[in-house]
Amino acid sequence: MLTKSGQKLAEAIKKAIDDHVVTNAEYEEIYNIALEDGTIDAHERILLQEFKNMIADKTIKRVP
Predict the structure, then answer these.
(1) Average pLDDT, whole number, for the chain?
(2) pLDDT at 18
(3) Quick one: angle between helices 4-19 and 24-35, nearest 10?
(4) The whole model's pTM is what?
(5) What is the DSSP string of the chain?
(6) Which pairing describes strands 21-23 and 61-63: parallel, antiparallel, or unpaired?
């Protein structure tokens, strides 16, 4: 089930993918979006894991 916060999270992650860069502020914002409703649902969990994997394999570069 796609939630409103899940959609917002997907959009924030897509921006990082499109830019190939995520700043520390954007990184924090992505996690705050996931946590804003008090629950990380299954869809959000998958999105966050994919996001972490893209940072780990340097598809997305994390910058200050």
Answers:
(1) 93
(2) 95
(3) 160
(4) 0.89
(5) ---HHHHHHHHHHHHHHHHTEEEHHHHHHHHHHHHTTS---HHHHHHHHHHHHHHHTTSSEEE-
(6) parallel
